[in-house]
Amino acid sequence: MKDFNLKDLSIKTVSKGILQFLSVMIVLIFVLGPVLWLVISSISAPKELLLRPPHFIPRMIDLSHYKNLLFGSGQQASSLTDYTLKAFRYSLLNSLIVSVGVTFLCLLLGSLSGYAAARINSGFGKNLVYIFLIVQMLPVIVLIIPLYILLSRLGLNDRLITIVILLTSIHLPFAIWMLRGFFLGLPQEIEEAAFVDGASRSYVLFRIILPLSLPGLFAAGAYTFMQSWNAFLIPLIFTSSDTTRTVTVSIAMFVGRHYTDYGLMSAAGVLATLPPLIIALIFQKNLMNGLTAGAVKG
């Protein structure tokens, strides 16, 4: 009877392990399958992408798409001129400028606002951070039309600084909430000791609190950079020239009316994915700590 129970238990354990393995594999296929196909399409010849049934392993690796995107070539398809490829290279620089600018502003303003929200424990100020989050819950599409009319009258459309300001206003509330969680986790006795020694509030913030909150700053910065890099709706509406479009909008422009080079578009997608992917891999631990700290503090 004892042996039978042990054998039955081992069968159940093996079955549970197999079920968990199959579940993980199914999830990985759904999550990583499109990414894998994107990479395969970017290194496949155009003729192979049109074969039926499709080839999941290319017969010959073709890196000409990456060469055309990064360095240009005189052998592009008729619907994709050299000017379009130059516009894509411009868009990579534009996305970098926008993402770095938004990240810098969110960290600067978010650290000041988050510190204030963490140290105000009475009255209206205590619940101010939740008002910020409620404002962020508003759908962006609701604000598009009034913002477009206002910025058009001010002559600020089709400018990178406009995209930076708009994306900062969208991502700043979450940065404040995340940094506030880190500031709440720091003991106030450190600040009180500095005040006793004659330090000012600004000195305490920039010389003591922020250095101790570097994991939170890295987490908020990584999150903001990735969200700004992947932004599509705001750059699509508020930019109209090839010299100001971001990379997400530029990739959408590869779709032609009569012809689409799927290999070239896939290569552009892979290049556009690399910066946020690298940021996520480098700061993944800090990013998870920042999200959990902001969720459980106050």
What's the short version?
With 298 residues, the chain is an all-alpha fold. The protein has helices at 2-42, 46-49, 64-71, 82-119, 128-136, 140-154, 160-184, 188-196, 201-212, 214-229, 233-238, 247-252, 262-282, 284-296.
Walkthrough of the structure:
The protein is mostly helical and 298 residues long. The protein contains 14 helices and no strands. The longest helix has 41 residues, at 2-42. It is globular, with a radius of gyration of 25 Å. The mean pLDDT is 81.
What's the helix and strand layout?
Blueprint: H1 2-42, H2 46-49, H3 64-71, H4 82-119, H5 128-136, H6 140-154, H7 160-184, H8 188-196, H9 201-212, H10 214-229, H11 233-238, H12 247-252, H13 262-282, H14 284-296
Helix pairs in contact: 1-13, 3-13, 4-7, 4-10, 5-7, 7-10, 7-14, 8-9, 10-13, 10-14
Helical proportion? over 70%
- Outline the biggest β-sheet: none
SSE order, one letter for each helix or strand? HHHHHHHHHHHHHH
Count of alpha/pi helices:
14
Characteristic key phrases:
14 helices; single chain; 298 residues; 75% helix
